[in-house]
Amino acid sequence: MKHTYWLILILIVSGCASIDPAVLSEKERLSVVGLAREKVLLEIPDISQEEIYFIKNEQPKSSYYKLSGHYADYTFNWIIKDNQGIVVHVRGDILTLEGAKIERFYK
Hints:
Blueprint: H1 2-15, H2 26-43, H3 49-57, E1 61-68, E2 71-81, E3 84-93, E4 101-106
Antiparallel strand pairs: 1-2, 2-3, 3-4
């Protein structure tokens, strides 16, 4: 019985670990960032030319928490100015951005 608790604890901890860069190949990472860019450009109303340029040319700050396979909690943040930016966040398949939500944020 004691071994069962340890096994469950190990499975929980390993499933919630941050995604190692090796989980996504460079090609997959570039594809995912490209999908995030497309979603932002299509779904943010009244996006300015400055914001469009920034989204197209700057790398977002990103964080991932692996759940299983390519499923993860993840966010992409573009900080446009000191006090505002755009975030893409989702829990789902990181390769398709299924269920992604896009929001502006103000600090």
